[in-house]
């Protein structure tokens, strides 16, 4: 018999927002599964069971979902948090770099959503919470491909939300401002930056740094995710 304990699955829980969100969901009473591309190297988190996941690999996505269902019997909440940035002026980013970012930020969300939805439909309930960004709503110079990926996440999420409501499932968005995590260091950068953009790039970097200074923290973003997962107001 399936357990009645609610299960939350957080992608990219090895650092930053995902890590804080996994811990906040444990505190909120969920059984929490976190993922990393190499779970054996992730710092253990109290109450979080780690599995391997690379959202760019179809086989990795289906193996993960099978493992979680096999072990815990259900998935009530999916947090599509795994994501990376791409810095650089539009003409500096190669198509391969842009594809790489879309493969994680957009197709990763789609692969996970497709794999988890049948289980939520069978359960008759579920919440899929997608980490977009303030850049899913506004433009961001020197971040065009990243911005485009998050706008894609917005359109996909809101559309699927309308498809699945009748099955008791909702697809919800969390849109953080600049948040101090490993995100910037983990972002892809142009191989050969064009000098013509140096001055404007410096200004854009200052704007980004200021946004992180005055922006969200992993803990405030985690509170927004828990509120979305539990249909409550952020505490
Ligand atoms: P981090 O770089 O700290 O964390 C990113 C996570 O994504 C890591 O845990 C990493 O796990 C995982 N990841 C990367 N590539 C893959 C992959 N191919 N498959 C599976 N997991 C992967 O960044 P943040 O915590 O800041 O970012 C989390 C989310 O929040 C992202 O979607 C980001 O776009 C969004 N966001 C961030 C903001 C910020 O300013 N930091 C602002 C707005 C939104 P591992 O390396 O262990 O596999």
Automatic annotation (TrEMBL):
Q: Write out the entry's keywords from A to Z.
A: Oxidoreductase
Q: Pfam families from the xrefs?
A: adh_short (PF00106)
Q: Which residues form a coiled coil?
A: none
User: What SUPFAM superfamilies has UniProt attached to this entry?
Assistant: NAD(P)-binding Rossmann-fold domains
Species whose genome carries this gene: Rhodococcus oxybenzonivorans
Family of this protein: Belongs to the short-chain dehydrogenases/reductases (SDR) family.
Q: Write the protein's name.
A: Short-chain dehydrogenase/reductase
Q: What are the GO MF terms of this UniProt record?
A: oxidoreductase activity
Q: Gene3D superfamilies per the record? A: NAD(P)-binding Rossmann-like Domain (3.40.50.720)
